[in-house]
Amino acid sequence: MSDGPATFLSGPTPVDAAPRLAVSLGLDAEDLWIKRDDLIGLGAGGNKVRKLQVTMGQALEAAADTVITTGAPQSNHARLTAAAGARLGLRVALVLEGDAPETDRGNVLLDRLLGAEIIWSGHRPVDEVADLVERDGSRGRVHRVPFGGSSSASAEAYVWAGDELLDQVPDVRHLVVAVGSGGTMAGLVTALGAERVLGVDSGAVPDARSTVHKLVEGMRPGTQVTADSLRIDGAHVGEGYEHLGDPTRSALSRAAQTEGLVLDPTYSGRAMAGLVAAVASGQIRRGERTVFLHTGGLPGLFGHEAF
User: Fold this and answer.
1) CATH code at 81?
2) For the chain, which terminus, N or C, has the lower number of CB atoms within 10 Å?
3) What's phi and psi for 114, nearest 5 deg?
4) Using CA atoms, how far apart are residues 92 and 181, in angstroms rounded to an integer?
């Protein structure tokens, strides 16, 4: 991994055994391990920090004064962009979907604490509002970070993470991960191969399979990875990205009550529901080394209306 000017990690994140959770799922006690990207220190942690090493490095190279990005109200990416901006001394403007809540909770509260400027899009598309903010000239030189921090360049951060994991768990057979803007899964597929990565769609993008495949192609033109070869479970989107379904609620409780492991209701909770379903259907079997990537998102738990 590059140790350039936007390095936010001090070393590999831990991999923890989860024997009681494994047995509750129907696996052997030694089958299941948790890759703890939630423990990355910056801004309450999470997978987006790895991508921000790339995107904020680009901002520094561009001599930006302000970084702009977009997201949902409880966006983990927005919160961590604000934290990265604070670490680097850059202004951060967050264009968030919808209207301002009556009370700042969860990630929104942290966005403000971290000093970000928050612009609510109201009924307009967030990208349209972000374009206006970028062009108005009042924020100096602006660098735009894409939705979710995902691009073919930033997805390389999860190629590095995949290599890191292989050093820790060389015999990994399955890696289960939430799919939001797609960059995390794309990088892991590039590092580990499509057959080992099971992505669980959160509903953040209209077509997760196409989104991930385009990112993989952007990283490795002419790759042998096809869209059809990607393992993506779309059964846990439910009523939509911001809605907490019963399988996810059950998965959150199971992880908490077997391992003291706290997940979030949008990404890692859905990914755990996908792991539960994969074991029940026989996609993941006893004796197969399985890693669950904990992508963080704890603040979102405190901002979720349905929990």
Assistant:
1) 3.40.50.1100
2) C
3) -80, 0
4) 20
